[in-house]
Design a protein that fits this description.
Two copies of one chain form a homodimer. Chain A has helices at 20-37, 55-66, 85-100, 109-113, 117-121, 127-144, 157-168, 173-178, 201-210, 226-241, 245-256, 258-261, 285-290, 292-296; strands spanning 9-11, 16-18, 46-50, 70-77, 104-108, 150-152, 182-183, 192-193, 270-271, 278-279. With 299 residues, chain A is an alpha/beta fold.
Chain lengths: 299, 299
């Protein structure tokens, strides 16, 4: 049956165009397909969604909720004052979760540690790595107290192919693996899933626009990895010359990725006595970073 | 000891600069290192060098000869009339081999088959692939009649990282493997080696200039893979921002490449009854392509 509505979305990579309604259906189907194909969640399962307030994480929360999963939002307030970044991010997250009527837990590093992330990353050459470590730790801690099947993040095809290319340039086998759509539960950490793995950033942007979702479009004022942006721009260019390049880059990777798993060194894990979570060292990198150990050490 | 000559070559990727004499020594050392590290040739071994008349193949012939190997040149005259490409290529090859006083065998497809490569590739979407197949076949046939340890080609770091990036975009495991510095003898085919694997194109260009080697700088008039050029340009840009990127891309690949070898499907090889060489089919792709089978079939 031919749709009589005007096409508002063109997707060269799928050689298709859609009206608003059919695009919405298409998008949900793509997410549903990824969830089934990669065995992310069982029907109606409880899932923690890591919510930044940006379009990607709100889109994944929205789609998972509409697909019948029990969504619990989790937002980390990093206390970034510049551009009112953290205040606006929290506000967008709160408003969205109120709208879909799902709970949102908020963790404020300022309240917890008396200082914003900006103070902690100072002096580090790669602030994004330090911030990522912090968010992962807090997320894992939160998930360990929930009875959820997985933590979902808003990583989409453009994020994943960008990371894949960056990691392939140094053949970093461990990081290559992190771009997989599912990271199984391991060492006491929750399973991580990327339900948007097969949708392009442009599709996510269209989805949130058609759904009327209000999100923070500010980039973090501290992110400025020119090299990473260049790699993404190259992929954009290859994609526009040969639609489907990114998807094929990612999907062919998935077919061979298993050869890398045998490569991973089984790192010895210990329990961090400061936070109680499994870690590569005791105290763990997070507790060292945020000075949590000091509180517990004898004076 | 500090060299008192004026530095004429700067190599940011090695964080070094050289006078002409020391660059020459450095270049030979790099080639020698690759030969030893990857076990390409034993001391003084006989080696067939695939010579196009371009800078890369003349550089590898020159370096191998100076390092004491018994160089036999092999040039394939493809009969490309445009820009006098094939005539000039043959001339440059002949002149160079006369100068180093080493034998050069020449195979003319025009003499052998009565038609140039241009006629054969017509109608093919990827003429370079057809030409590559043709050259590999003729080269293997020649090498099988020689008592040489290996066939050397002039592929340098820029060729290899460009190919690596192109093949990684589709995770083509078999082609990823072809960028290795040594392809062992297999199925009756000679071992293939790339003694320039660790030197950059710019270094090869400097080497032939300082050595006064006359080469054909024309690109083949039929090569125009815009995508491949774009990938190389991206690598150039990354290299100029972070000197050493290409080398690290290639060397880290070498460290993990073994995980792909188990992936290779053991393809069943047969003998082509037309040319007598091992092949995936009988008649082989080369004989089908050049219509050699017709000559032998009953009329």
């Amino acid at each position: 049956m031919v749709c009589r509505e005007e096409a508002v979305v063109r997707l060269p990579s799928h050689n298709a165009k859609f009206c608003a309604h059919h695009f919405d259906q298409f998008f949900l189907r793509q997410v549903d397909k990824a969830i089934r194909k990669f065995k992310m969640l069982s029907e109606g399962a409880k899932v923690v969604v890591a919510v930044s307030g940006g379009k990607d994480s709100l889109a994944v929360a929205d789609a998972l909720s509409r697909l019948g999963f029990e969504v619990v939002g989790f937002h980390i307030d990093l206390g970034i004052a510049q551009d009112e970044f953290s205040r606006l991010s929290l506000e967008a997250s709160r408003q969205f979760f109120a709208k879909i009527d799902r709970p949102l837990a908020v963790y404020s590093v300022l309240e917890k540690f008396g200082k914003p992330i900006t103070e902690v990353v100072q002096g580090f050459k790669r602030p994004c790595a330090v911030c990522g470590l912090t968010k992962r730790h807090i997320m894992n801690e939160f998930a360990s107290r929930q009875d959820a099947q997985a933590i979902a993040t808003g990583h989409h095809l453009d994020d994943l192919t960008g990371a894949l290319l960056a990691n392939v340039l140094r053949w970093d086998v461990r990081y290559l693996q992190k771009t997989l759509p599912v990271l199984p539960a391991k060492d006491g950490f929750a399973k991580k899933i990327k339900p948007l793995a097969l949708v392009a950033e442009e599709e996510v942007r269209t989805y949130v626009r058609l759904r009327g979702i209000q999100y923070v479009s500010l980039a973090c004022p501290f992110s400025k990895d020119a090299r990473f942006k260049r790699l993404r721009a190259l992929l954009d260019q290859l994609e526009s010359e040969s639609p489907g390049t990114k998807r094929s880059f990612y999907e062919t990777f998935l077919r061979v990725a298993h050869v890398f798993s045998a490569q991973e060194n089984g790192r010895q894990m210990v329990l961090c006595r400061s936070c109680g979570l499994p870690a590569a060292s005791d105290p763990c990198a997070f507790c060292r970073l945020w000075g949590k150990t000091l509180e517990r050490e004898p004076q």
